[in-house]
Specification:
The complex is a heterotrimer of chains A (about 300), B (about 300) and C (about 425). Chain A has about 300 residues and is mainly alpha-helical. Helix content of chain A is about 70%, strand content about 0%. Chain A contains 12 helices and 2 strands. In chain A, strands 1-2 form a two-stranded antiparallel sheet. The N and C termini of chain A lie close together (about 5 Å). In chain C, helix 5 links the parallel strand 4 and strand 5. The N and C termini of chain C lie far apart (about 75 Å). In chain C, helix 2 packs parallel to helix 11 and helix 11 crosses helix 12. Classes of the chains: A mainly alpha (about 300), B mainly alpha (about 300), C alpha/beta (about 425). Chains in contact: A-B, A-C, B-C. Chains A and C meet through helix 1, helix 2, strand 1 and helix 11 of A and helix 1, strand 2, helix 3, helix 4 and helix 7 of C.
């Protein structure tokens, strides 16, 4: 998919979601909202993957976003969805700015494992904090949108609509960013970092910036997921959550900013179908599905949509 | 004094367990450069096989003293069946892919194996306590320890020394060291790298299975046994340096002693102390304590 | 081209979803079957000791109810004549997954009632969703008191006591059976909400019943740690009079296997609040004198009534093992729901009741179960209280049994309506 067509496709998808959502059953709206939330996290991971970095601990920021939103709601009574999402995003970004100084020095597996270690430390700290409900977590207030609590039948649609708009803006922003000089450094860093330095650019700075952006996206997604599910717990920082995000990243492929969302949706569907069809062996179904995708679609599901010829 | 000795003994026992659990992972990474998530599955397979086979034989009247051999045999059996299947059947075609993709493939295999284990052995816990209590116990001041723990330490030492000997003295070992250092040149020199991979994967998984098999008498073998081991093994291996055998040993000892001290003196932080150690080591020595030197490619 | 392709793909996905939903089918009216969503752990560590026994109990209870083979007062078919259909969901995965699957069960699969949930985290997350979707949901096992103490619900019920009862009962048992003053206590519990709450309840209760008691050490190993050498060494060194543990399954069994040869059971009294689940399998490793809990009057502590005789025999015949407390609790939940349903039906002139009528009947209901009397007495009538019992392990002619059993009435070991558990304990168990 050539870069110029992406904004148009994004806009079309947004309209499609808003339109189809009016007719879709409630449980589909829920599934779609969660897919968007996870897709945001994966969008950030995709950004890092383009630099050649895989974060095994992205769940850290997902969790920070969720807890920031939840704690803000609990302590101030704020329930406006957009505010909570932005709070999650800012909280995650702030932490990333600090941690980025340490993490931007690492590459490949060590980057991944150090990020894993940090997310597990957060997990441990949260489990020990009984004031936050320890491993049981706590519930989030029902959301309001710009001061209004939508009627029961419209809540899911309203949340989905806001999530879709926010995601559209985020995806568009990331897409634009990838066109800037700093954004274009990503594949260059992945290929050969030393040459990048010889050219006069700072690979470390570029990575730090991308790390913060990825964290902000994850925080945004975490806050959205927390308010949609209505519950927050430390498992959001556990390594299996990070594993799920990486799973989706590879499933989706890195071809376009649309890929993460498609990947998250497909993952959500496979997960639910596996649960429904074989409650006793759903893990096996999931593992087999992942294997099939990796073997037959090595560039992710998105490679099905790639235009032949153009990159 | 007594408490200090307790910390030391508990630490060494835990370190031994960690070492046996982690050593296969570092070997596979060192040779094949893959982070093998199925490591946890082989640990679980070893534990389940050992528990069920030993349990069945003991029920049929096998003398308990033979159970130690049966533990080893079960681990061997289950690994020789499953590991080559995985390596030849799936992994072999994947080596050209990116490191992360291979990791995900092993993760997918891990998910499949988890349910496969559940299908074969069910969800009820298995345990075989005879080997644990058979040898009696010894006392250190006021504390009683079963001799079995010494067997665990023994297994760790045998595995470590055995592996070091194999890598340093045998022909296969030396070929493996060559592959560890540079796969391309090894291939150019005529080493059958694919055969080395098969051997390494099987041997590394066997070590994991042995870890599981010898742990089985001390615990109750339940689903999810492999999950915890994966993260712990990673932490140990990363601290010591991926691909380094002495690194894995040092990493295991550090983690074991730190954890033991934490439990005795500061139980509240026990939950994440291992990750703290991992983060701190990585912060100062980014590649772990003993890492293999890698030339910077321009 | 790609834009159109993308749109087609999106449409295909969107079409797949309602087609999938339609495939679920809707039930006809009349003596329409009732779809019961049953949620229990079918994979992971909790499956063996709780999830699968509970699932088995659900299967067999529903089968027997449909076959009218349950003794009085539950002899009618299904619920009030309507046969029951079970839809099983695995409780494994994150709370996000569980909330998703709950919504799917309710909105896509149209279940009538949901009975399930072992994990407290899931119960806390599901309760508000059940309320939002207005679906009658009955929790059968999860232990946290927070559900009805943090807020009130209309559509959510829990038919077994909270975990507070376990630790309070254990403390009373210590007071009643240990001769002499208890000077120090130690704990080894898993470091997550269940273990943390169990320990703090026990510690607080002991401070009330044995003033001046000291905590020698509180060990909190990671959940599923499996290796407890260091913890055992520390406890041995601490020399406490009483050791409390709320370990379950793999951890419980590993602890028993590792602690025995090291002589932990000989030094002081060890209380295993969920010990019932391991008592038969590890009979050879549990010496006499270990205090065993069953989270209520279940298993060996169940009364010798007709329902219990029926239940334990039917379960054991089908599954070759006696039912443990998880199995009892699941059956208790199903029978309690049935009792409420049929009471509402009778009040409705024999016609099928509405959910609101069932809820009204369920509130403050008292019903019989294989474990004895259950009163939905607290949580504004939505939370059950039962008596509890503790005893010590004792081998009689090589078979594992319990001895020195003490029963504690429901109001003695559960807080009164409207009072938080922690406050109730801190105020000296004021009724």
């Amino acid at each position: 998919m050539s870069a110029e067509r992406t904004p148009r496709t994004l806009a079309l998808t947004l309209v499609a979601i808003l339109a189809a959502g009016l007719f879709a059953p409630q449980w589909t709206l829920f599934l779609l909202t969660i897919a968007l939330a996870k897709g945001l996290v994966v969008l950030g991971l995709m950004l890092l993957l383009r630099c050649g970095l895989v974060s095994f601990g992205q769940a850290l920021y997902y969790c920070i976003g969720a807890y920031a939103a939840g704690m803000l709601g609990r302590s101030t009574g704020v329930s406006d969805l957009l505010t909570l999402m932005l709070a999650g995003m800012v909280a995650a970004a702030l932490v990333a700015v600090v941690l980025g100084f340490l993490l931007a020095r690492y590459r490949s597996i060590f980057f991944g494992l150090l990020s894993l270690a940090i997310s597990m430390i957060l997990y441990g700290l949260l489990v020990k904090t009984e004031a936050l409900g320890s491993s049981d977590g706590f519930n989030v207030l029902p959301s309001t949108l710009f001061g209004v609590r939508p009627a029961d039948d419209w809540v899911r649609y309203a949340v989905l609509a806001l999530a879709a708009v926010v995601t559209f803006v985020a995806a568009l922003a990331v897409h634009r960013y990838l066109g800037t000089p700093l954004g274009r450094l990503a594949p260059a860093i992945k290929d050969n970092e030393i040459r990048v330095e010889y050219m006069g650019a700072s690979a470390r700075y570029a990575i730090h910036v991308k790390y913060v952006i990825a964290a902000a996206l994850a925080g945004l997604g975490g806050a959205l997921a927390a308010t949609t599910v209505g519950h927050i717990d430390p498992e959001m920082a556990y390594w299996t959550t990070s594993g799920e995000f990486i799973f989706i990243t590879i499933l989706a492929g890195t071809g376009s900013v649309l890929a993460p969302f498609l990947g998250a949706l497909i993952f959500g569907i496979i997960h639910t179908v596996a649960f429904d069809l074989s409650p006793n062996t759903w893990q096996m179904v999931l593992g087999a599905a992942l294997l099939v995708v990796i073997v037959f679609l090595p560039n992710g599901v998105w490679s099905l949509f790639r235009r032949r010829g153009a990159s | 004094m007594e408490q200090f000795l307790a910390v030391l003994i508990d630490g060494i026992i835990y370190s031994a367990w960690l070492f046996v659990a982690a050593i296969g992972l570092t070997l596979i990474y060192g040779v094949m450069k893959i982070v093998n998530v199925t490591h946890g599955s082989f640990y679980a397979l070893g534990a389940y096989a050992a528990a069920s086979i030993t349990g069945a034989l003991l029920a049929k009247g096998m003398p308990p003293s033979l159970s130690y051999v049966v533990l080893l045999g079960s681990a061997l059996l289950v690994t020789l069946v499953v590991a080559p299947l995985i390596e030849r059947g799936i992994l072999r075609f994947m080596y050209v892919k990116d490191e992360v993709v291979i990791l995900l493939i092993t993760y997918a295999l891990f998910l499949i194996l988890e349910d496969a284990i559940k299908l074969v052995w069910g969800v009820s816990p298995y345990f075989i306590a005879e080997p644990y209590g058979l040898l009696g116990s010894f006392d250190v001041f006021d504390l009683t320890y079963p001799y079995y723990n010494l067997i665990l330490v023994g297994v760790a030492i045998v595995c470590g020394v055995g592996l070091a000997w194999m890598l340093g003295r045998t022909r296969t070992g030396k070929l493996l060291v060559a592959v560890i250092h540079d796969t391309e040149v090894s291939r150019a020199m005529g080493i059958n790298v694919e055969r080395m991979y098969l051997f390494t994967f099987t041997f590394g998984s066997l070590l994991a299975a042995i870890g599981g098999a010898f742990t089985a008498p001390t615990v109750s073998v339940v689903p999810g046994l492999g999950v915890e081991v994966i993260v712990l093994s990673f932490a140990v291996v990363v601290i010591g340096g991926l691909g380094s055998l002495p690194g894995a040993a040092l990493g295991a000892v550090i983690v074991g002693l730190v954890r033991s001290a934490t439990i005795h003196f500061l139980p509240q932080v026990e939950l994440f102390v291992i990750y703290l150690v991992m983060a701190m080591v990585l912060a100062f020595r980014p590649r772990g304590l003993f890492s293999i030197a890698e030339a910077r490619k321009i | 081209m790609t834009t159109i392709k993308k749109a087609v793909a999106a449409a295909a996905v969107a079409a797949l979803v309602p087609a999938f939903a339609a495939a679920q089918g809707a039930a006809a009216q009349g003596e329409a079957p009732l779809k019961i969503g049953v949620v229990s752990f079918l994979s992971g560590a909790a499956a063996g000791p709780f999830g699968v026994p509970a699932r088995n109990a659900a299967e067999i209870t529903i089968e027997m109810l449909n076959g009218e083979k349950v003794p009085a007062p539950y002899a009618t078919k299904g619920f009030g004549g309507a046969p029951l259909q079970m839809q099983l969901v695995d409780e494994a995965g994150s709370t996000t997954t569980q909330v998703t699957e709950f919504r799917n069960m309710v909105q896509r699969d149209n279940v009538d009632i949901v009975i399930g949930y072992i994990s407290s985290g899931n119960c806390l997350a599901i309760a508000p969703v059940a309320e939002e979707l207005k679906k009658l949901t009955v929790f059968f096992d999860c232990g946290t008191p927070r559900i009805f103490e943090d807020r009130s619900y209309k559509y959510v019920f829990r038919t077994s006591s909270t975990a507070t009862m376990d630790s309070v009962g254990a403390a009373f048992y210590v007071r009643d059976t240990i001769k002499g003053k208890v000077k120090s206590i130690a704990g080894v519990n898993q470091n997550y909400a269940w273990g943390q709450d169990s320990w703090s309840d026990f510690e607080a209760s002991m401070k009330q019943l044995a003033p001046g008691v000291k905590v020698a050490t509180s060990q909190m190993p990671k959940l599923f740690a499996g290796q407890f050498n260091a913890e055992i060494s520390t406890i041995l060194g601490a020399k406490a009079d009483v050791v409390h543990s709320s370990f379950w399954n793999g951890d419980l069994e590993a602890f028993i296997l590792q602690a025995g040869p090291r002589g932990l059971f000989k030094r002081g009294t060890v209380i295993l609040t969920t010990g019932e689940t391991a008592m038969y399998k590890l009979a050879d490793h549990i010496p006499d004198g270990v205090v065993l809990g069953a989270r209520g009057p279940y298993g060996p502590y169940a009364p010798d009534n007709a329902l219990n005789k029926w239940f334990s025999k039917t379960f054991a015949d089908r599954y070759n093992v006696p039912p443990n407390y998880a199995a009892y609790q699941m059956t208790q939940a199903i029978l309690g729901t049935k009792a409420a349903w049929e009471k509402a039906q009778a009040a409705n002139g024999g016609k099928r009741p509405s959910i609101d009528q069932v809820i009204a009947a369920f509130e403050r209901l008292t019903f019989e179960s294989p474990a004895g009397k259950v009163e939905m007495a607290i949580g504004a009538g939505h939370q059950a209280i039962t008596e509890t019992a503790y005893g010590v392990a004792k081998k009689v002619k090589g078979k594992m049994t319990v001895a020195n059993v003490k029963r504690y009435p429901a109001t003695m070991v559960n807080p009164p309506d409207g009072v938080k558990s922690a406050d109730w304990i801190a105020n000296g168990f004021k009724k």
